[in-house]
Amino acid sequence: MCEGLIEQARRVTDQARRMELYQQADRLIVDKAVVLPLTYDRRHMMLKPWVKRYPISALQNWFWKDVVLEPH
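RE: above sequence
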């Protein structure tokens, strides 16, 4: 179906109509796109009991200024 819209858009001389057809084709392609995560990352950490406020971030952005080391 997308191929038909794209082929039709190639032949249309009205630019507004052509863009409308391309947008419809684009919407169909995006809706039918398959997203399949191939891998995922997992990290294990061990922290000493005196390490406090250690930032945990899914993006792995650690801000060391926030970490507190208590006396032990």
